[in-house]
């Protein structure tokens, strides 16, 4: 399994959920992976599980200084960055009138500003490889309406992806966005969400939610040379929800 042999990847929000799934698959496919997250305990445990080709760095993705440190530490440990997966994000389901400015800006900083900072931070490193790939995790709500804050930031990720794809094409760096629907992660399989998700799944054309590994397979394709002529595009993985 060598689809990412000797590639160096940074994956944000990778201590758990979809990010952890991406990290496992990338290492399996030959990459050296830097896992970043605020969840230090889970991140360290995952890096130890994955062995010498993985490293954890605690990161606030909304901090420019943290981004600069992550890229510098990645280069020191593994070499120039080939792949960035901007996976970190939060979801808050609230109405506009019940959302404070502080709450709104928190979503913007984590879901949107972090993507800008990540792309800005890695470009100088990726220029050295001449074949970089940036995968920005948006959402089906980057295509259709959802909650305030979440929807607008995921639309922004889609737009930033296109702008960056044109900007970075001259360096041989590709930039694409992934738009998942409902994914089976701890966030949706615990507590009060379980029954709600089961009911919602009935309205998905494929009649089920996706597993993290299914999204990972798409992210892997975009990170690899198999997608060498794809840039500035949206890749939807939502079981047919936005096709209705």
From TrEMBL:
What's one GO MF term for it?
oxidoreductase activity
User: What GO terms in the biological process aspect are recorded for it?
Assistant: bile acid metabolic process
Provide this UniProt record's keywords sorted from A to Z.
Oxidoreductase
InterPro entries from the xrefs? NAD(P)-bd_dom_sf, SDR_fam
Indicate the segments annotated as coiled coil, or none if absent. Answer: none
Q: Does the keyword Thylakoid apply?
A: no
Instruction: Name the domain of life this protein comes from.
Output: Bacteria
SUPFAM superfamilies, A to Z: NAD(P)-binding Rossmann-fold domains
Write one Pfam family the protein is assigned to. Answer: adh_short_C2
Give the similarity note.
Belongs to the short-chain dehydrogenases/reductases (SDR) family.
Report the protein name in the record. 3-alpha-hydroxysteroid dehydrogenase
Species for this entry? Peribacillus loiseleuriae
Mind giving the lineage of the organism this protein is from? Bacteria, Bacillati, Bacillota, Bacilli, Bacillales
